[in-house]
Amino acid sequence: MDEQGLKQQLKDNTLSGAYLFHGEEDYLKELYVGRVLKRCVNPGFEGFNLHKYDGESAEMDEFIDAAQMLPMMSDRVVVLVRDFDLTALSSEQSDQFKSFLEDVPESTVIVFWLDAIKFNPKKDKKWKKIVSLFEKNGAVVEFGKKDKNYLSKFVMGIAGRNGKNISLSDAYYLIDTVGDDLNVLENETNKLCAYCENGVIDKTAINAVCVRTVTVKAFELTKAVSSNNLNRAFEILNVFFEQRMEPTVILSEIITAYVDMYRAKVSLASGENSEALSSDFNYGNASFRLKNGASFASKISVEQLRECLDELDRADMKIKSTAGDNRLAIEQLLVSLAVISNR
User: Fold this and answer.
1) Does residue 124 surpass a pLDDT of 90?
2) Torsion of CA 37, 39, 40, 44, to 10 degrees
3) pTM for the full model?
């Protein structure tokens, strides 16, 4: 089931059975969990008809028992299970869970909300089996990252509800400036709505108000290069130069992203976990960089990453020691990195 199908069920009030919510876009998962609860649970009866479980501490028998309960003064019981690792079940538990999914009461809506747990159903064999099980006996809704068309409508919608106006091109510029995370976009658009008293949000306001997420954009650029999407890489690079960022700063962020990729790659290869690595290099609240690095480096060998670091070192020395065209040097660097990564 896609997002539109879930929307229709909410509109028609036909929700029933088991749902698996997963994907990269955390904002949408949380949004639709809220909409399910609002549609199915009558105010004042949450204590009877809403049962929430944290996957780290919950036992499977608990939420299965809750799902068997009859609703009180309502049509449905809702069971919300957040970040329960269904791939960690024993063989006996797996059979029990399968039997449960095949016979979820019609008056029950049970949502398995994977928030911190992320997976690729095409590559992860264990989760692929779980997804298949839900597809046969319930519904799977993947909330993935959205394209610019979706994101621009999202931004323009927020602006419109606040009595403001933003053009399509300026909405695109905002997305390029702050990234494609819906939580960030919502916050930044609301800031712009409060700032723009004349009712129009434009590039001048965006440059004045919005936080330039250089690190995030550098990771996006790195991801684009490693996947041979040079058009996207140069789009991000153009945004950096439009914002008049110093070439040394741009290169520094790219180097940081590749260092994170290298650290994550060799750490995982040696059997080290990400928590220990984060502690060793004092990442603190920036530990997400290692997670991104591990993801982007999954298709690149250690040897290729070393070659990329050599290229970055040469570009760094060139930019700092000569008075040439630094933009051209970075553009040439991106092409070299793409060639190495996709060889």
Assistant:
1) no
2) 80
3) 0.65
